[in-house]
Amino acid sequence: MRGNSVKASGVKGALSFSGGGGEISSLTELHEATQEEAEKVMILKASELGADAIMAVRFQVVAPSAGLYSVMCYGTAVKIETTEINDG
What we know:
This protein is an alpha+beta fold. The protein is built from 2 helices and 2 strands.
C-alpha cells in the first residue's frame, strides 16, 4: 500500500503553489502517476526475468529542479519454488 501527498514547505512555497498552503493536488497527482509508472516498469522487468514476486519494494524520489521529477521503484525479484517434505 502507498499514499501520496505533496505539500509546499515554507510560507513562500505554500503561497506560490497552492494559494495559501495545504496539499498541492496537481503535484500529488503527478507523484502518484509517476510512482505507478515506475512500479509497472519494475513488475515488467521482474516478469521478463521469470520472477513470481518482488520482495522489499522501495521507492526513491528525486526532483532536482522544476519540471523534472523522477521516481525509481526497486525490490528483490524472487522465484518461488515448492518442495516436498518427506516425513520419512
